[in-house]
Amino acid sequence: MQIHKDKELEKAVEKIKSVKVQGAKEIAIFALKFLKKYAMKHGFGLRFEVASYVLEQTRPTAVVLHNCLEIVKREQKMSTFDKLIKQLETATKRLAKKGAKLIPDGATIMTHCHSGEAVATIKEATKKKDVKVIATLTEPLMQGVKTARELKRAGIDVHLIADSATGFFMRHVDLVMVGADALRVREPKGLVNKIGTFNIALAANYYKKPFYVTANSFKIDKRKKIIIEERPKEGLINIKGIKAYNPAFDITPWKFVTKIINEKEIINPEELVKKYGKD
Ligand code: MRU
């Protein structure tokens, strides 16, 4: 089978690669919708397995799609796609309600990159409370702009800052709220999220500010290993003869995370690792 000739798959991959579809949950939903149509056309055989693998590897760090595909492969039913999409969508609503309770009235929240789950939680809080947001630009792809636009559209007071200014502004914020690509309960343990998250967590720890992670339970990562996606140097800077590193994610050790909010519970990182890190 010639994968490179699979135009429909190529188109789907390109949408994810170019970050037209972004955010761990949105990528999973997009891929599940695509794969449902794909399975209806081609069945659940080898061609489907290859397409699933190709989509999963397009953003190899995030774990949601991986966890969903494990279920799809086990059940091999069309209804599984719809069930998983529904679960992911419902999870955001549920965790937003839980997480909003952690946000005090009048709080200034710092967030990083674009997380649908963090944005939903902040929006939920503003139904009853007055909050302000400081959002990072999130270099190099400026994904924080999407966050700022969404919050502004919801009538929330939001300021964008350079990624390098997070330490400077930390003393003015009441809490940090970010999303996640993966919650590692096996080595290397920690919160896997957009590059720069670790720096923010260090600054929050210095100023003793709570650091919350909104992440549905499909983000619990039991994979034996994790690949931190390294994007092309040109995506960062393009100077002839100058080399560059451009990793897209980092891993924040759990000791810098205050609580994880998912659709079922608000949990400490130590409990999360104890509960899910065994098998
Ligand atoms: O929509 P979410 O909450 O699933 O998105 C969360 C993320 O994908 C990560 O926070 C990621 O690092 C942001 S990059 C778009």
Mean pLDDT score, rounded?
A: 97
Rg to the nearest angstrom? 19 Å
CATH topology of the largest domain: Rossmann fold
The gross shape turns out to be globular
Number of helices: 10
Count the strands? Answer: 11
Unique ligands: 5-S-methyl-1-O-phosphono-5-thio-D-ribulose
For the biggest β-sheet, the strand order reads: 3-2-1-4-7-10-11
Give me the strand/helix succession. HHHHHEHEHEHEEEHEEEEEH
Give structural notes.
The chain is α/β, with parallel strands linked by helices and 279 residues long. 43% of the residues lie in helices and 15% in strands. The chain has helices at 7-17, 24-42, 46-58, 64-75, 78-100, 116-125, 144-153, 166-169, 197-206, 269-276; strands spanning 108-111, 132-136, 157-161, 175-178, 182-184, 190-194, 211-214, 220-221, 249-252, 259-261, 266-267. Strand 5 (182-184) and strand 6 form a beta hairpin. Helix 1 (7-17) runs parallel beside helix 3. The longest helix is centred in the first third of the chain and has 23 residues, at 78-100. The two termini are 36 Å apart. The mean pLDDT is 97. It binds 5-S-methyl-1-O-phosphono-5-thio-D-ribulose (MRU). 5-S-methyl-1-O-phosphono-5-thio-D-ribulose binds next to helix 2, helix 6 and strand 6.
